Automatic annotation (TrEMBL):
Name of the protein: (2Fe-2S)-binding protein
Claim: Iron-sulfur is one of the keywords in the record: yes
Species annotation: Microbulbifer bruguierae
Keywords for the protein's UniProt record, in alphabetical order: 2Fe-2S, Iron, Iron-sulfur, Metal-binding, Oxidoreductase
Entries under InterPro entries matching the protein: 2Fe-2S-bd, 2Fe-2S-bd_dom_sf, 2Fe-2S_ferredoxin-like_sf, 2Fe-2S_ferredoxin-type, 2Fe2S_fd_BS, Beta-grasp_dom_sf, Diverse_Oxidoreductases
SUPFAM superfamilies: 2Fe-2S ferredoxin-like, CO dehydrogenase ISP C-domain like
Presence of keyword Metal-binding: yes
Residue ranges occupied by any 2Fe-2S ferredoxin-type domain in the UniProt entry: 1-77
Tree of life domain: Bacteria
Length: 156
């Protein structure tokens, strides 16, 4: 049975077994490669996407759990139709020159957008809590924090 998915506003049917990780459906079946594979064990956050607005680890989410839900990937928040929060976050990421190697950054951005959609004026504790599952081997954490605060100001 094909699995029906809505990704970035578009409906898809994919011939994947129900336990296939959503990450592989996004990358291999739908050919959206902005979402990255890091640990495969829900430990690093590189694979973060939104499911009905909540950040989830797509490496450890079986595709069957995503059926009927709205999935948003980094490609979805990069479009001109992206939300004001998504645009503010991406502008702030540029302004603060957050990115080093870039590998973790789509996951970082997805977590930051989910945080600011829910909490437009986050405290340091809110940021720590929302971003603690996103690891950056290049140690860009201070710039990420600065960019989240900058995006929050842009949205005021
Ligand atoms: S690849 Fe999913 S959390 Fe690391
Ligand atoms: S920018 Fe290199 S891992 Fe985060």
């Amino acid at each position: 049975m094909p699995v029906k998915l809505n990704v970035n506003g578009a409906d898809h049917q994919v011939d994947a077994t129900p336990d296939t990780p959503l990450l592989w459906v996004i990358r291999d079946y739908l050919e959206m490669t902005g979402t990255k594979f890091g640990c495969g064990m829900a430990l690093c956050g590189a694979c973060t996407v939104h499911m009905d607005g909540q950040p989830i680890r797509s490496c450890s989410t079986p595709v069957q759990l995503a059926a009927g839900k709205k999935i948003t990937t980094i490609e979805g928040v990069s479009s001109t139709a992206a939300s004001p929060v998504a645009k503010a976050v991406q502008q702030a990421w540029n302004d603060e020159q957050v990115v080093q190697c870039g590998y973790c950054q789509s996951g970082q951005i997805m977590s930051a957008i989910a945080l600011l959609e829910k909490t437009p004026k986050p405290t340091d504790a809110d940021i720590d809590s929302a971003m603690s599952g996103n690891i950056c081997r290049c140690n860009t954490y201070q710039r990420i924090r600065g960019a989240i605060k900058d995006a929050s100001k842009k949205l005021a």
